[in-house]
């Protein structure tokens, strides 16, 4: 079997469509269809059923899935290890993070990297989706959730308290919230459902059941920007008050039970590559200075 055919099989399984698989693999749809046909001919079985909901695996496809994913892990590991012997500080590094961490920490790190290592090119992917480093969707991730996979190197970069914040503009309009009133008469910003697992029915331990939801946001950058604009109050990690002086911490004695943690994650094979190690070291230095 040809590895490129297996890649096509996995891309169709993960996207559910020929067109989406082609986009993910940067191939044209004709090539994707041809490679799938080649693989099915080689295996002498149908791997997918085409339904109204997209391509779904047949029983034969389900049986082939584990082997295909194992081949993928081996191929990615081989590529990483082969790159690891290159000790030159040049080449591409893909980094995944959230938009807020990208603005507040990764961009300052990239400025330092450009000065120290001009031949390292860093591509930054900002998304709420946690990319799979085992499939090489990224070389490095800076995350707010600690991953559990055993083949990853995980390092905690920092942690901050999470407090309740608003601006003077907001307070002039709505006044200071009163403990025990469940934010009656106040507007709060929250995340859209599914964006974060940390969001509950309280803000720093106070029920928000009487509050008006001013906005449900799908990114951390939009969330903090919305609060900084004076449109609502909400929970933020306390480092942001040092970056954005318009933020005022309300009820400073109250905080969310769980701190805001930031983790640096990379695959064990990526750690062998000099350019990846260089990027990791600069990112860690920037977080230490903040």
From TrEMBL:
HTH lysR-type domain: residues covered: 1-58
Domain of life: Bacteria
Biological process according to GO: DNA-templated transcription
GO molecular function, one term: DNA-binding transcription factor activity
Alphabetical UniProt keywords: DNA-binding, Plasmid, Transcription, Transcription regulation
Family label: Belongs to the LysR transcriptional regulatory family.
Protein's UniProt name: LysR family transcriptional regulator
Organism: Moellerella wisconsensis
């Amino acid at each position: 079997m040809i590895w490129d055919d297996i890649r096509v099989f996995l891309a169709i399984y993960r996207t559910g469509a020929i067109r989406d698989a082609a986009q993910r693999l940067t191939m044209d749809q004709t090539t994707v269809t041809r490679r799938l046909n080649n693989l099915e001919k080689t295996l002498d079985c149908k791997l997918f059923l085409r339904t109204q909901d997209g391509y779904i695996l047949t029983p034969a496809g389900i049986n082939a899935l584990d082997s295909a994913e194992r081949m993928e892990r081996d191929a990615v590991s081989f590529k990483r290890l082969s790159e690891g012997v290159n000790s030159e500080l040049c080449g591409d590094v893909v980094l995944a993070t959230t938009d807020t961490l990208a603005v507040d920490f990764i961009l300052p790190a990239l400025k330092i990297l450009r000065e120290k290592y001009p031949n390292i090119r860093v591509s930054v992917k900002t998304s709420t989706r946690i990319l799979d480093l085992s499939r090489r969707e990224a070389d490095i991730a800076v995350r707010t959730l600690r991953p559990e996979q055993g083949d990853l190197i995980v390092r905690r970069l920092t942690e901050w308290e999470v407090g309740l914040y608003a601006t003077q503009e907001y307070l002039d309009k709505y006044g200071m919230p009163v403990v025990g009133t469940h934010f009656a008469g106040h507007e709060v910003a929250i995340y859209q459902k599914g964006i974060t697992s940390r969001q509950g029915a309280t803000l720093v331990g106070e029920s928000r059941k009487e509050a008006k939801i001013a906005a449900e946001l799908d990114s951390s950058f939009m969330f903090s920007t919305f609060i900084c604009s004076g449109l609502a109050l909400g929970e933020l990690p306390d480092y942001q008050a040092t970056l954005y002086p318009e933020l005022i911490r309300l009820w400073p004695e109250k905080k969310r039970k769980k701190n805001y943690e930031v983790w640096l994650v990379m695959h064990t094979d990526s750690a062998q590559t000099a350019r990846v190690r260089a990027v990791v070291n600069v990112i860690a230095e920037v977080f230490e200075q903040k």
